[in-house]
Design goal:
Layout (H helix, E strand, L loop, with lengths): L4 H4 L30 H6 L6 E4 L5 E6 L5 E8 L13 H8 L3 E2 L2 E2 L2 H7 L3 E7 L4 E8 L3 H13 L7 H19 L6 H9 L14 H6 L2 H11 L5 E7 L3 H12 L22 E7 L5 E9 L6 H13 L4 H9 L3 E10 L3 E10 L5 H18 L3 H18 L9 H12 L4 H11 L2 H12 L4 E7 L4 H6 L45 E5 L5 E6 L5 E8 L13 H7 L10 H11 L2 E6 L4 E8 L3 H13 L5 H18 L3 H14 L15 H6 L2 H11 L5 E7 L3 H12 L24 E6 L5 E13 L5 H12 L4 H9 L7 E3 L6 E11 L3 H16 L6 H13 L8 H14 L5 H11 L2 H11 L6 E6 L1 H9 L5 E3 L5
Parallel strand pairs: 2-8, 9-13, 15-19, 20-24, 20-25
Antiparallel strand pairs: 1-2, 3-7, 3-8, 4-5, 6-7, 10-12, 10-13, 11-12, 14-15, 16-18, 16-19, 17-18, 21-23, 21-24, 22-23
Length: 953
């Protein structure tokens, strides 16, 4: 898939821990709350008005007007995906998607650089079995430029496609394939498709394809694919946002009207097969817990039974109070995680149940128990309350997703998906109506019909991957593949068409960001409240933030903070874990707690009609956690399994290894960035430690309440007062964090962690800058965009776009309050590990010395930063995060409104000065996670000391 800033930036946010909940001291007084809003009432509020028209060349255009922000989502969906690939061409649809990002005849060069230049947000391209889509949200003044770019690659691509581009993107895609397969359970999809679908079935091969087929792709294939599938008559264009149909028609006709129609699209049909008998398969992988799978092929999105089946799966294993959670996780305690869901596609879908077996439990016995529970469920069916809770969650999720105009779940995607798959942009309405009207009988009928058929039972157990399983992935071995077979003649492509000449339109004036006014108030006990109003959808988000986080963790028992948060929604003095889960589901609410490095936050997502009752639940969870001994032991087991799992994941291994090397063991930040603590620490935590952490840190005199969404201060304050206004601090002292650096020298070196059979090496390097978050080093952060923060940065352009050694690469300055590290990261193909470090070191050194920021880089970065601001705060979640960030490091409420002026004053010399003062590249410590027998000889040649590292704890 193509690269966007959102998809590329890993979880480098320091210290983000598991979701859960947060607690407090005195019991809140019971408060009567309104009954939950009926599902039918919620569904009736979901509406995306649209107009549509079709150009003479067949391009279908759908327009939705939403004036909340001066941005427009542009979404282009081509009705072609891996299902349409002929034999021997697997992976080609996705490879072609990559090529669409590397220049067209009138806009050559990387497409994403041009998107960043106009301030695009939420941009990406994705390929799946049935479709390929390209999307971006742009400032209204940049809409013509975006339409020009999309039309040029739709109508005028082939003259810009070269063998060099094809070879480079082949390498990038192969590294993307390696990256996915390097994760735990990374070979499962190949085995599932092979077992469930007959030979020749169009869904049987993975979208990523095989190495051999990717190697065989030629320029002739590129031209044929484009001419066959990328005509305007096989596409849907959706414009959603600050646009109306009349304006859209003029603009779309101008940019797309002269593109000739392609051949009439030909569908590739697919049956919904049933296995002749149950299939049992066992695989081995470097995993922490045995995972049990149950899979069936079920109908596609246009079946009138799919929504019923989706509800059936949600009740069985999708709800937090699901049948599987209650039986296997809470009651019998033989599993640490369960899921059940539908993965929908156009012609068929995949139903999947997974159970992660608790280490020490017998997987065979757990598998039998799983099958017993399923048989009982199919026999007796769900209750009316279970169906109601599942349907409410579906409605709430849809409402939440429609706050955005673009991205992965916004209104443009919803309309496009309906048009492409169902010839009905309003298909979402019909689906929601089915969810709202579902009954236990209708859900049971669908479940019995489709889940009562023969099943694939797949078990993935700890162990070494087999050659046969690697072969299913299209990898006879995990050696890096050539761009193309060096012994074969280069494939011959047809002569490309004569280039066209179309002028790139200018950017129209874009108004600077108008950030919503922040209103402030104080509860009678002193808790400060901040509100940003946003009325786009009837939802409210609340975050109760405590000055705690993973930096407040007990150094002697690392994991206390994470375990405390994980336990908060697992029972209060008056509600059990199951009751809390069920109540959230009836309300369509979601309560969760998380630790960043500097804060512990307890968040609430609520539907406005259910805000009163949702706040009642939030207050109980925050103020009255039970920390019941049985729940402590259950969550302790889950946390230990999580730590064990992190030790099998390349990036998580690096994130556990690096922080103590940078900060030292004594510093509050010198702990695993994953936030899960250590095995020794989690085992040692007592219930008294948990209540002690809660009393010291999660208390009213250490809290601030942030709210964003469809409410007013007049509505909100009485609700908060009656839930939190009488909350008093406990008698114990409030916690204190001590930030003090030791005087130890930490020389640059390479620490190698052996991960046998890794098809890639994960590189994570770091150093400590001389800046803290409270310094608000905006110039340094902007300079980092040039080095490694943007999709057209030095590091990504070198390691991915020029060399093709990595799927992504970059650098980040995590947003912590105290000393900020610079992190450099890249997953690279194994045989280029040493050379990748050499190249990255040179890129960083050049940037900080002889090859500083160019005027072109400065201008593109400043344009991107300013123009992207209006699209960066589209949702209440965006606003909430911005408010909390400003508060954490002491910035004023109007900070983001002042940024354009700050950016415009920056020069290229300012970028260089900020970077050179803060970053000493000679202090970089490099952690490499890979197959040591293949990687160590390369690292020894880099010129830095090399040592082996282990994750004992």
């Amino acid at each position: 898939m193509a690269l966007s800033p959102m998809s590329r930036r890993l979880s480098l946010t320091m210290g983000l821990s598991v979701l859960a909940l947060s607690p407090m001291a005195q019991a809140a007084k019971p408060v009567a709350a309104a009954a939950p809003a009926p599902v039918a009432s919620l569904v009736s509020q979901v509406d995306i008005p649209y107009e549509e028209f079709t150009l003479k060349n067949g391009l279908r255009v759908i327009v939705h007007t939403d004036r909340k922000a001066p941005v427009v989502a542009v979404s282009v969906w081509y009705h072609v995906g891996s299902r349409f690939e002929p034999a021997g061409k697997t992976g080609f649809a996705h490879l072609f998607e990559h090529l669409m990002f590397y220049g067209s005849e009138n806009a050559d060069g990387p497409f994403f650089g041009r998107l960043e230049d106009i301030g695009a947000t939420d941009w990406n391209g994705t390929t799946w079995f049935d479709r390929t889509n390209y999307f971006e949200t742009v400032p209204t003044g940049a809409l013509d430029r975006a339409l020009f770019l999309e039309s040029d690659r739709m109508g005028h691509l082939l003259g810009a496609v070269t063998q060099t581009k094809l070879d480079t993107q082949r390498g990038v895609v192969q590294n993307e394939k390696r990256m996915g397969e390097n994760e735990p359970y990374g070979l499962v999809e190949y085995a599932q498709l092979d077992a469930m679908l007959p030979a020749g079935h169009p869904y049987r091969h993975s979208t990523i394809g095989s190495m051999a087929d990717l190697n065989a792709a030629s320029l002739a294939d590129v031209q044929s694919w484009f001419k066959t599938h990328y005509g305007p008559n096989n596409a849907v264009l959706v414009l959603a946002g600050d646009i109306d149909a009349a304006t859209a028609k003029t603009k779309v006709e101008k940019w797309f009207g002269n593109i000739a129609a392609g051949p009439a699209p030909k569908d590739v049909d697919a049956t919904v097969p049933t296995l002749d008998k149950d299939v049992e398969k066992v695989m081995h992988d470097n995993v922490a817990a045995t995972r049990l799978y149950r899979n069936w092929i079920v109908p596609g999105v246009n079946s009138d039974e799919l929504q019923q089946l989706d509800l059936a799966m949600t009740v069985f294993g999708g709800l937090k109070s699901s049948r599987l959670d209650n039986a296997l996780v809470r009651d019998e305690k033989v599993a640490v995680g369960v899921k059940a869901s539908i993965q929908p596609f156009e012609k068929l879908s995949i139903a999947e149940i997974t159970v992660d077996v608790k280490p020490g439990a017998d997987p065979v016995a757990v598998g039998k128990r799983l099958d017993q529970l399923l048989a009982d469920y199919l026999d007796k069916g769900p209750s009316a309350d279970e169906v109601l809770r599942a349907a409410t969650g579906q409605a709430a999720g849809t409402i939440s997703g429609l706050e955005k105009v673009g991205g992965f779940s916004g209104k443009a995607v919803t309309l496009a998906e309906g048009a492409v798959y169902s010839n009905d942009p309003a298909k979402y309405k019909k689906d929601l109506a089915v969810y709202a009207a579902a009954t236990p009988q209708s859900v049971s009928a669908a479940a019995r019909k489709w889940l009562g058929r023969p099943v694939l039972r797949l078990t993935v157990a700890p162990g070494e991957r087999s050659a046969a399983d690697n072969a299913l992935a299209g990898n006879a071995t995990h050696k890096p593949a050539f761009f193309r077979n060096p012994d074969a003649a280069a494939p011959v492509a047809a002569t490309p068409p004569a280039p066209t000449k179309i002028a790139e339109p200018p950017i129209e004036p874009v108004k600077d960001l108008d950030f919503p006014d922040i209103e402030h108030a104080t509860l009678k006990n002193g808790i400060k409240v901040a509100l940003a109003r946003r009325t786009t959808v009837p939802t409210v988000r609340v975050s109760v933030a405590f000055d705690a986080g993973n930096a407040a963790d007990d150094k002697a028992k690392l994991g206390t903070a994470g375990l405390t948060a994980a336990l908060l929604d697992e029972g209060t003095r008056t509600r059990s874990s199951i009751q809390i889960a069920e109540e959230q589901e009836r309300l369509g609410a979601s309560i969760s707690a998380a630790n960043s490095m500097d804060r512990t936050t307890v968040g609430l997502f609520a539907l406005k009609p259910n805000l009163d009752a949702s706040l009642d639940l939030l207050a109980d969870v925050i103020r009255n956690p039970a920390f019941a001994p049985a729940e402590v032991e259950r969550l302790r087991s889950q946390m230990l399994t999580k730590i064990a799992s992190e030790k099998t994941e390349p990036m998580a291994i690096a994130q556990r290894m690096l922080p103590p090397l940078l900060y030292g063991q004594a510093h509050p930040y010198g702990i695993p960035f994953t936030g899960s603590g250590t095995e020794t620490g989690v085992k040692a935590v007592t219930r008294a430690d948990l209540t002690g952490f809660h009393d010291a840190w999660l208390r009213p005199d250490n809290a601030t309440i942030f709210v964003a969404g469809d409410t007013t201060l007049a509505e909100l304050m009485p609700l908060l007062e009656k839930r939190f206004g009488d909350w008093k601090a406990p008698g114990v002292a409030k916690g204190v964090k001590t930030f003090r650096m030791d005087r130890m020298m930490r020389p640059s070196r390479i620490v190698l962690v052996d991960k046998p059979q890794s098809p890639q090496s994960m590189i994570l390097a770091g150093l400590l800058t001389n800046k803290s978050g409270t310094d608000n080093p905006v110039t340094l952060q902007t300079a980092n965009e040039v080095l490694g923060g943007s999709s057209s940065s030095r590091l990504i352009m070198d390691l991915r776009e020029t060399k093709g050694w990595a799927y992504y690469a970059g650098s980040a300055l995590p947003g912590v309050k105290e000393t900020i590290p610079l992190l450099v990261y890249a997953p690279v193909q194994t045989d280029k590990t040493g050379e990748s470090i050499v190249a990255a070191r040179k890129d960083i050194s050049d940037f900080l010395t002889a090859k500083g920021t160019t005027e072109t880089e400065r201008n593109q970065t400043i344009n991107s930063q300013i123009l992207s601001l209006p699209g960066s705060f589209e949702t209440s979640s965006d606003l909430l995060s911005a408010m909390m960030r400003n508060d954490l490091i002491g910035r004023p409420d109007d900070y983001y409104e002042t940024l354009p002026k700050t950016y415009r004053a920056m020069t290229a010399a300012d970028f260089d000065k900020a970077a050179r003062e803060a970053i000493n590249p000679d202090r970089l410590i490099w952690v490499v996670v890979g197959d040591a027998k293949l990687v160590r000889p390369q690292l020894d040649a880099v010129g830095l000391p090399v040592e082996m590292g282990t994750l004992a704890d």
